[in-house]
Amino acid sequence: MGKSLFFISWALLCCCWTTQAEIFTSIGQMTDLIYTEKELVQSLREYIKAEESKLAAVKSWAKKLDALTRVSTSDPEGYLAHPVNAYKLMKRLNTEWSELESLVLQNPSDGFISNMSIHRQYFPDEEDETGAAKALMRLQDTYQLDSEAFSRGKLPGLHSNAFLTVDDCYDMGKTAYNDADYYHAVLWMQQSLKQLDAGEEAVVSKADILDYLSYSVYQMGDLPRAIELTRRLVAIEPGHQRAGGNLRYFERLLFKQLNELNQAYQPSSEEPIQLGTYSRPKDHLPEREAYEALCRGEGLQMKRSRLFCRYQDGKRNPRLLLKPMKEEDEWDSPHIVRYLDVLSHEEIEKIKELAKPRLARATVRDPKTGVLTTANYRVSKSAWLEGEDDPVIERVNQRIEDITGLTVTTAELLQVANYGVGGQYEPHYDFSRMSDVEAGGATVFPDFGAAIWPRKGTAVFWYNLFKSGEGDYRTRHAACPVLVGSKWVSNKWIHERGQEFRRPCGLTEVD
């Protein structure tokens, strides 16, 4: 198919910040879970009502039989001397107690369990829960949010009743710990301990929190604090299976280091661990700091003096003569433009309607094997739509051709992506020498410090290859994690094949 040549991104719907998450990465699909949970709550209420009705009937039986046995046991022979009482005793034990037994054996939970079984196939699994936890940590890193802010629902520009309990924070820390991510394990175990010490009720014990926290702090290289935390653990639970051994090991290790450095022992700080106490370990992405700073709106390079807006009629395209497109420059070199009012609200809703049932975890092509696979650096769900699927898709494809002046005959299908909690696509290139091109969206360009914020119904367009066919490495871009809200975008990749007369080669490699 040749190399990917051009990229156009249509912002369908955006709330707050941008980007992609783990398995249930699509907010569009997660909304179904909201209604599923509502249905299950109603089913639970019906079960409770049935149990209460059953219990009321049993209580009524118990009250009646209690009165009868008080009379019968006061004078058994006198009671049975009356033939009616003798008959009723036989009847009760033969028939009525059997009816009571049947009542007690009734299981009102059958309907609820059946409903649960039907819906369970759509429930998130452990991988989804882990992915959601990692998404929160990703947001925490990118937007430099401390665990306290997250726990109390205090996000930039938003304050809600969404909060995390002691047990929630503990589970977040345990997720990080199990992934050998001791940096985040420390932050979340510390927050769990803080809330527990403040008097909040919890299922998890203080000893369990200190166990994970002390070892994670040790892994971060802070031996004095690891010792202090382990001593607190031993004080609470002297017979703890690991604490005593860990404490002796930490103390030996610390004093060995102090002797080698000829330093005196300094007690650990009494200050709680917080964001900034420890440095986040480096990872695979060299421009991590620059990328995340741009996502926060920091370090942006402004070139407004050379940016203009204009009406664009696609070189006298008949379909644009009466209603030309409004075009704005977003960046001068490489040239990135935005088109306004490209999609109507009705078209957006139709595209979302078509895409939603087809959404699947977005993939990238493994550079070693060439096989499409999921990746942690690309977290979203996407669907691919053809012109034959609906007249709206055909109109959108035609509109892209009219605006760009390029043929879409050799282009990719229209991709629709929905980004959920912490969804992202880390810095990447869209051009490739393979037969297919990995999919992705655009928000920030670390190489030249640009950030392009999504706006509903608009389209952003740039060339990611020079006219020579060589890749423009300046167009390495990333989609920042969605902090609040749900982002829908639609992407179109137009290949260089078929554009020979529409965008002829230049005289140099970088024309």
UniProtKB/TrEMBL annotation:
Domain annotation Fe2OG dioxygenase: ranges: 410-496
Any one GO cellular component localisation term in the record: endoplasmic reticulum lumen
E.C. number: 1.14.11.2
Pfam families per record: 2OG-FeII_Oxy_3 (PF13640), P4Ha_N (PF08336), TPR_P4H (PF23558)
GO molecular function, one term: L-ascorbic acid binding
Gene3D superfamilies attached to this UniProt entry: 6.10.140.1460, q2cbj1_9rhob like domain (2.60.120.620), Tetratricopeptide repeat domain (1.25.40.10)
Function summary: Catalyzes the post-translational formation of 4-hydroxyproline in -Xaa-Pro-Gly- sequences in collagens and other proteins.
Compartmental location: Endoplasmic reticulum lumen
Keyword list, A-Z: Dioxygenase, Endoplasmic reticulum, Glycoprotein, Iron, Metal-binding, Oxidoreductase, Signal, TPR repeat, Vitamin C
InterPro entries named among the record's database cross-references: Oxoglu/Fe-dep_dioxygenase_dom, P4H_N, P4HA-like, Pro_4_hyd_alph, Pro_4_hyd_alph_FE2OG_OXY, TPR-like_helical_dom_sf, TPR_P4H
Cofactor(s) of this protein: L-ascorbate
SUPFAM superfamilies: TPR-like (SSF48452)
Record-linked PANTHER family: PROLYL 4-HYDROXYLASE ALPHA SUBUNIT (PTHR10869), PROLYL 4-HYDROXYLASE SUBUNIT ALPHA-2 (PTHR10869:SF244)
Name the UniProt record assigns to this protein: procollagen-proline 4-dioxygenase
Keyword Glycoprotein set for record: yes
Xref: SMART domains: P4Hc (SM00702)
Family from the record: Belongs to the P4HA family.
Signal peptide: 1-21
Predominant place of localization: endoplasmic reticulum
